[in-house]
Design goal:
Number of helices: 18
Distance between the termini: 56 Å
Bound molecules: phenylalanine
Shape: globular
């Protein structure tokens, strides 16, 4: 076999694996959650902690999920139930993942509804008399029937896509439009960075004040790393089960993490310089994206159209991520419960809607006063999934991969695609055993007040 032939083969399959994984990772987490959490947690110190979490925790956990997924070639519940002989107990990782998918979708569809609403609202704003100001967002997110209507619409659309089994088609569309979203973010960045006073926004993002690293910052950054890279709940294990044998797991995971981080940073660079230039508040909460992007574009010729285009592309990226989230319970219902695909899709969407209504109404007068552990439903679901279930799942996944699967078996899967083991696979393996679970545990214990880091 000629080298050239080998090279071409490897390239084609690696690219496919890369694109699919990025499709699940890039979503509202990049353009909505990353900027809003950065703003609420004081800026650059959070960004730095997040970047460390991606490198020290995210990449190793993704490698384990891909190794176990490709080794087992099963859905997450069965993969973890069978990967350690005699210890079916680990299927709990898959079960917890199903619960995480429901909790995440409950608030994700609320936010996705805002994005879809903004497609319409920004288009209407092109005409006279319907400006897109901060009151627009307040009325939408704080309303009752309007956000519910959009949420139902978003869930119905996602369920229809999955029921029809056309997620492959959607993936293709997402993949072609993703580079466009990237390009539009760059346009946004150029506009935001050339605003007078933009430099303070850049400093806010990149000049860390280490004194701001607190227990909350550590836990939020860790939780965001899991959420962003779709880790700790079996999504990436399922993706691993689709990986070609020759995909090199560590480089693929590293590239995915880099691409995903780049999109987040580009979104941050579009938002914070503008926040500072226009005298807004970085800690603007979940409305930050919706209030800032129309403002940035309003200072450009043709800006109204760019705003519409931005929200259309954001909606497309969101559909891609939602399809990957809904697919978790659907795949299990179809494969294990022998439920027909359309029924599984609408059953899952129904469960997601039940929880989703709680999340949406917790921002409206209807359930606005209900507090559980001091949080409304929206924040509670977000906190429980990102900051509890996913990191705990991450520790369990690292322990299974690093300690319970034999070293030989694990490395054989990790090293596939190479003639000889590359130096970095041993380093990643050492991380998986010692560093990654240790760091997650330290941050979790710190949040519980058992130890005191920050
Ligand atoms: N990573 C996706 C985003 O950033 C969300 C997601 C989480 C998707 C978990 C699948 C699983 O929007």
């Amino acid at each position: 076999m000629s080298t050239q032939h080998q090279g071409r083969d490897a390239f084609a399959s690696n690219l496919g694996a890369f694109a699919a994984t990025v499709g699940s990772a890039v979503g509202l987490g990049n353009i909505w959650k990353f900027p809003y959490l950065t703003g609420s947690n004081g800026g650059a110190a959070f960004v730095l902690t997040y970047l460390l979490a991606v490198a020290l925790v995210g990449v190793p956990v993704m490698a384990v999920e891909h190794v176990i997924g490709r080794r087992m070639r099963l859905d997450a519940v069965r993969a973890y139930g069978r990967v350690v002989p005699g210890q079916r107990f680990w299927s709990a990782i898959g079960w917890a993942g199903l619960l995480s998918a429901l909790l995440i979708m409950a608030f994700y569809t609320d936010v996705a509804g805002w994005v879809f609403a903004y497609v319409l609202k920004s288009a209407l704003a092109l005409g006279p008399g319907r400006p897109l100001g901060p009151e627009t967002f307040g009325a939408l997110a704080g309303g009752t029937w309007e956000p519910i209507g959009w949420q139902v619409g978003v869930l119905a659309l996602t369920a229809t896509i999955i029921a029809a089994g056309v997620s492959k088609g959607i993936e293709k569309v997402t993949k072609t439009l993703m580079p466009l979203l990237f390009a539009l973010l760059l346009v946004c960045d150029v506009r935001a960075l050339t605003l007078p006073g933009a430099a303070s926004g850049v400093a806010y993002l990149f000049r860390p004040d280490l004194g701001k690293i607190s227990g909350t910052v550590l836990l939020s950054a860790l939780g965001l790393a899991f959420f962003k890279l779709s880790l700790g709940m079996g999504t990436m294990t399922t993706y691993g089960s689709y990986l070609p044998e020759e995909t090199r797991i560590v480089p693929n995971a590293t590239r995915v993490a880099l691409a995903d981080t780049l999109v987040s940073l580009l979104a941050g660079l579009a938002i914070f310089p503008a926040v500072f230039a226009f005298g807004g508040k970085p800690a603007g909460g979940p409305g930050l994206l919706f209030n800032t992007i129309p403002l940035v574009f309003s200072r450009m010729p043709g800006g109204g159209l760019f705003t519409v285009l931005f929200f259309v592309l954001a909606a497309v990226a969101t559909i891609g991520a939602m399809v990957s989230l809904v697919e978790v319970p659907v795949a299990w219902l179809v494969e294990k419960g022998h439920v027909a695909r359309p029924a599984a899709a609408f059953l899952t969407a129904g469960a997601m809607l039940a929880l989703g209504l709680l999340a949406t109404l917790s921002q409206s007068p209807v359930l606005g006063d209900v507090r559980i552990f001091g949080k409304g439903f929206f924040d509670l679901f977000d906190f429980l999934s990102s900051n509890v279930l996913l990191p705990v799942g991450g520790v369990a996944i690292a322990v299974v991969g690093g300690w319970l699967v034999s070293r030989k078996e694990f490395l054989a899967e990790l090293d596939k695609g190479y003639a000889a083991e590359p130096w970095y696979d041993r380093i990643v393996y050492a991380f998986i055993r010692y560093v990654t679970p240790g760091l997650i545990l330290l941050i979790l214990l710190n949040s519980l007040g058992v130890i005191r880091l920050a």
